[in-house]
Structures are given as C-alpha cells and as structure tokens.
Design brief:
Blueprint lengths: L1 H26 L7 H32 L6 H12 L14 H14 L1
C-alpha cells in the first residue's frame, strides 16, 4: 500500500500547505478578517499621536518663554511655585493633611444614620 501512495505524497503535502496558507490569509495577524482590529488600533494610535503633538507644542511654547532672551516672569513664577513649593508672602497657604478627608467622611456617614 505505501508504494501505491508514493506518487500522491507530494500532492498531499502541497494541498496541506495551500490549506494552511489559505487559513492564514483569512485569519492571520494581517489576514482579511482582522481589518477591523487594525483600523481600531490605527484610530487609537492617531489619537495618541494627536495628544502627544499637542503636548509637544505646549512644551515648546513653555521652553520658548523660559529662554533668557524672552523670559516670562509669570511662567517662571508658576514653575518655581510648582517645583520647589515657593509661595508669595501675600498668598494664603492652607495645609491639607491626609487624615482630614477620612474624618469628614466619618462625619458624613454618621449624619446619614
């Protein structure tokens, strides 16, 4: 029997290869049926790119205003307040502790009872 099947082994291997490649062409990572997933991924990446471009343009403006030839005093003061905790002597500073929200929540639940 194996000798009778010998001429068909090459044809059977080629048929299996064609079937495998056909299935991959339909359902593979870049197949015909995965176009929706690629479109969704492309939309997500375009949204991310737009957000990053907007953030970059904002940072470029900030850097331009922090250069020594066109120094913006307002931006410099804002960055100093944010980074090192600098406050103007005329500002009112109200310290907030982490335990205050828990105490307020405790009072709010006791009032509902």
């Amino acid at each position: 029997m194996p000798e009778r099947m010998k001429p068909y082994t090459l044809s059977a291997c080629l048929l299996l290869m064609v079937v495998y490649l056909g299935v991959q062409a339909l359902t593979g990572q870049r197949g015909l049926l995965s176009g929706g997933q690629r479109d969704a991924l492309l939309d997500a990446r375009e949204t991310q790119l737009n957000r990053i471009v907007a953030e970059r343009s904002d940072l470029e403006v900030r850097v331009r205003y922090l250069r020594s030839d066109s120094l913006s005093r307002d931006l410099l003061e804002e960055r100093a307040r944010a980074v090192i905790g600098y406050a103007d002597p005329r500002d009112y500073v109200i310290p907030i502790t982490d335990t205050a929200p828990a105490a307020v929540q405790g009072r709010a639940t006791s009032r509902k009872s």
